[in-house]
Every structure is written in structure tokens, then in C-alpha cells.
Input
Amino acid sequence: MAMSAIDRRHFVWLCGAMLLTGGARVRAQQQGNRPPGTHQDNTNGAEWITRLERPDRIPGLKIDDVISCLTLKPGDVVADIGAGTGAYTIPFAKAVAPLGLALAVDIWPELLDYMSRKADAARVGNLQPVLASLDDPRLPAHGVDVAFFHDVFHNTNDRQAYLRRLVTYLKPGGRIAIIEQEFDDPIAKKWDIPEDRITREQLQDWMAGVGFELRAEFDIFQGANNPPGTGMPARWFVVYGQGTSTTR
Output
């Protein structure tokens, strides 16, 4: 039976409740340990709901294609980091049901509450919200098959340190999937200053620092494959894991 929004909130890890002064807000001046010249996006949760729930945005996410690329299967545990309003998280939960779990990870309680209500309305009972911190997704140790980021990883502070922490949450053979804006895309330039955007080459160096290698890359958001009219920049999509095999 699907859990109510109230029951679901009880899953939100209590250790996350104290991550912010006052328990529920990121202060505008809070910068974490981001490098000089970068900035922390402190848009509040309510504003994110408005931004992320634009109907024209959803086709640009190519949700079914992403699930196919990730080869999610029933029983998997997938962590959607920076889950927002759950556009990917709820379909992920359906893809790994009935025994799998989708972890909806975000720093904003408002977004987690919103996702819980959406999951209840969709009769999805295997979505678990997780209140994260700026530098730690706070996942179960060695409990995650796939850690997924869509247009989110560039918002982390110390990217190398974040990955070092993240790999401790993966199961043996676990993967990290990252979708990011093309560095020179006009929309990306409008959204973020150069210091806040990242390149594939940078990511590859950071991944090498935690012993991860490129396993797959997909062009479903590039060039003519990027759906027009969605207001979304072209994006690259890569999957990393431990091991020696690399595929394209």
C-alpha cells in the first residue's frame, strides 16, 4: 500500500534536519567550499517548483530514453540527486518496482514534500525522500546501484570531495550517471557563469580521482536529438563505474 505524504516524511533522515541553520533554509550567504569566482544557487524550494514544473520542460527530459540508457531493472536502488519535483524520480521508482527503491535526494524540504504528494497521487509507494546537505547526499552506505544527476552535479561545491563521499554509498559495481549542460551552449551561458559550468574532461579527471572510468555515453540530448522548444540546453550524458571496460 502506498504511504501517505505524512508517513513518507518520516523517512526523511533526521540527521539531515539539522544541516541548515533553523533546519529548513539555506542562507543566501552560505557558499560551502566552492572555489573562488563560483556561486551557490540559493533559489528557494517554492521557486524551484515553479521553474521545474513548466509543462514545456518535460519533453526535454526524455525520461523514457534515460531509463532505457540506464538499464534500470526491478530491485535496483537508484538515487536521484537533486531530484527537484520528481520528474525522473517517480518514473525511476516505477521502473525498479516492486522491490526496488527510488531515493529522492534534495536540500529543500518543500521539494521533498511536493514529491511525496506527487508519488501518493501516482500510487507510487517505493519512493523515499532524503534531506541532503550541500556537500553530502546522505545515502545508505553501500546501498545504491545508480546515483543519477540531471543538470545538478555542477552545483556541488568541491566536486572531487563530493565524489569521494558519493562512492562510499554505492554497492559493489554501482554506477554514477551524470547529465550536464554543454559548456558553450547559449542557454547554459545564460544560466551559469563559466566557473560554475563543467566539462566532460573535468569530470573525467574527478572520476579518475575516485577510481571510476567511463562506461557509456549517450547523445540523446545533443544536436538535433535535443528536443526543440523546451528551453533546455544541449547536454552530455555519461555513465561511470569501477572496472576496465569502456563502451560508447
User: Anything to note?
Assistant: Residues 1-31 have pLDDT under 50 and may be disordered. The first strand starts at residue 77 and ends at 81.
